[in-house]
Amino acid sequence: MISMKTLLASAALLVAVPQAGQADILVGFVTGLSGPVSSIGIPNAKGIAAGEAYVGEVSGEKLRVIQLDDASDPTASARNARKLVEQEKVDILIGTSGAPQTLAMATAAIEMKIPMIAVSPIAPVPPGDGGPWVVQTPQPTPLLVQGIVDHMKARGLKTVAFIGFSDAFGDLMYDSLSQSAKAADIKVIANERYARSDSSVTAQVLRALAARPDAIMLGGTGTPGALPVLALSERGYKGPLYGNHGLISADFLRLAGKAANGIICPTGPVTAAEQLPASNPIQKVALDFRGAFEKANGEPPTDSFSSYSFDGWLVLVDAAKRALATGAKPGSPEFRAALRQALFSTKELAGTQGVYTYTPADRHGVDDRSRILVQIEDGKYKLLP
């Protein structure tokens, strides 16, 4: 005969042990909450918080985020990725802020054979065994830069100088400009670089101006992206100035001030969501994002970086639905494999920055619908035709 004590102990055990099929989906998120790219990393974190507020579970399974700060250090990005996978046993990785950091994290993810959603643009990396493993939400840099070059060509500009970061992001921007400009018969006549931690770019700006370009393109982002803008303004530059999606930032606008007026940037549709036609499938999601962001963070979004991580969350949710439908359970190797396969079969998923369709041959998943041109006017982004 079973005693009352045994029955009570059994009942307590049933309460303590999760029921079958109720394991959390663990999401390992790395971002730069400190260091030189924190002006990107903090918004990235707020975007993930908005995603959690928007969708907190998938098919009855709770999504649980484990977040680590890489302090803007690529070595820490890779180390955090390994910790999340090997110690925390996460099912998927999302991260991080900055191209060098994200590249280091992606390399670690591929080695560990775990799916990852990159929220900063990275150059192609070898897919690894059983891969590919990594998709990204930021538009491919060549697609964005092509919008700039098309605008230059329409204005009859023949030469351009480049001033950008001396890192992987700067390389992406410069290489994309060189490729598109050559096809448009526009010459890149200066390639000036600076470190994100630099406090002055006077020498680089003077050399760029000495080349007498028809236009200047900026290859910096966030807070340090304002340095050449201010230096050019101080030296009376009045020519066409082109930016990039990394300048869609409240910190950039605050530092650059009136010197930013007139800069033309390629960016995602979320930047001018209310200016898009209602028929655009991105408009509703972009406006929903703003509501979710405010709910999660107590303030409206004022940057573009948070929307990339929010889109990463949408991609995860969409893939997780299909991965769970296979019968694989979170926490298992089978679920990771199903999640990876689901990522690369994503089709026409509307986000804030584009409409995503990933395949093993296309880790970007977006087309021209993911690009608009905006012009900065007194701290606002005006949609250009």
Please write out the topology.
Layout: H1 4-16, E1 25-31, H2 38-54, E2 57-58, E3 61-69, H3 74-86, E4 92-95, H4 99-112, E5 116-118, E6 134-136, H5 141-154, E7 159-165, H6 168-183, E8 187-194, H7 202-210, E9 215-219, H8 227-234, E10 241-242, H9 250-256, E11 264-267, H10 281-297, H11 305-324, H12 333-343, E12 349-350, E13 355-356, E14 372-377, E15 380-383
Parallel strand pairs: 1-3, 1-4, 4-5, 5-6, 7-8, 7-9, 9-10
Antiparallel strand pairs: 2-3, 11-14, 12-13, 14-15
Helix pairs in contact: 2-10, 2-11, 3-4, 5-6, 11-12
What does the model show?
InterPro entries: BCAA_transport, Leu-bd, Peripla_BP_I. This is ABC transporter substrate-binding protein. Pfam families: Peripla_BP_6. Residues 25-367 form the Leucine-binding protein domain. By secondary structure, the protein is an alpha/beta fold. It is 41% helix and 18% strand. The protein contains twelve helices and 15 strands. It has helices spanning 4-16, 38-54, 74-86, 99-112, 141-154, 168-183, 202-210, 227-234, 250-256, 281-297, 305-324, 333-343, and strands at 25-31, 57-58, 61-69, 92-95, 116-118, 134-136, 159-165, 187-194, 215-219, 241-242, 264-267, 349-350, 355-356, 372-377, 380-383. The strands form four sheets. It has a six-stranded mixed beta sheet, with helices on both faces. The chain has a four-stranded parallel beta sheet with strand order 8-7-9-10, sandwiched between helices. The chain has a three-stranded antiparallel beta sheet with strand order 11-14-15. It is globular.
